[in-house]
Design goal:
Blueprint lengths: L10 H10 L12 H7 L9 E5 L3 E7 L8 E5 L4 E8 L18 E8 L10 E5 L2 E7 L21
Antiparallel strand pairs: 1-2, 2-7, 3-4, 4-5, 6-7
């Protein structure tokens, strides 16, 4: 199965930046490499999602490790856009503590996916278990092609 990935022109620059700021290459003029990791933009982190569909339903799995259900907002707009928003407050740090590494993110994160038109949005269900948000939306009754009988005889002009 082939997977498609949206083109991000800045992805390679972020990887290159991490390489330059790694402890192997870092020097005093670059500063503490741990500070560079903390400054990395929260926008670079997106909620990872898997979306799959079969004949019965569309299923979305989103990874939200460490988030409580109260911290997550899931909605479907009238124009069929599924939005997942999550927020986490930063932990309070004490002046006597110094982080050697800080990778857990805090702030607000969001992801949106446009849903196909043949789903029953009113029957959507959402669950959050072990850090995985699951949204299931059943497929609406399938519209099948019907054969329409021709009623009456065709009329012809006698002219």
């Amino acid at each position: 199965m082939t997977s498609m990935q949206r083109f991000d022109p800045f992805r390679e620059m972020r990887h290159f930046s991490r390489l330059l700021n790694s402890p192997l290459w870092a020097s005093q003029r670059w500063g503490d490499p741990l500070e560079h990791d903390e400054v990395e933009s929260a926008a670079a982190w997106r909620i990872p999602m898997d979306v799959r569909r079969d004949d019965q339903q569309l299923t979305v799995h989103a990874s939200l490790p460490g988030f409580a259900a109260a911290d997550v907002d899931v909605s479907i707009s009238p124009d069929r856009v599924l939005s997942v928003k999550a927020s986490r407050q930063s932990e309070v740090t004490r002046e006597s503590e110094e982080y050697l590494m800080r990778e857990r993110r805090s702030g607000s994160f969001a992801r949106a996916v446009r849903l196909p038109g043949d789903l029953d949005l009113d029957a959507a269900a959402v669950g959050l278990e072990h850090g995985v948000l699951t949204v299931t939306v059943p497929v609406a009754g399938t519209a099948q092609t019907r054969r329409l009988p021709i009623g009456g005889a065709a009329t012809t002009d006698g002219a």
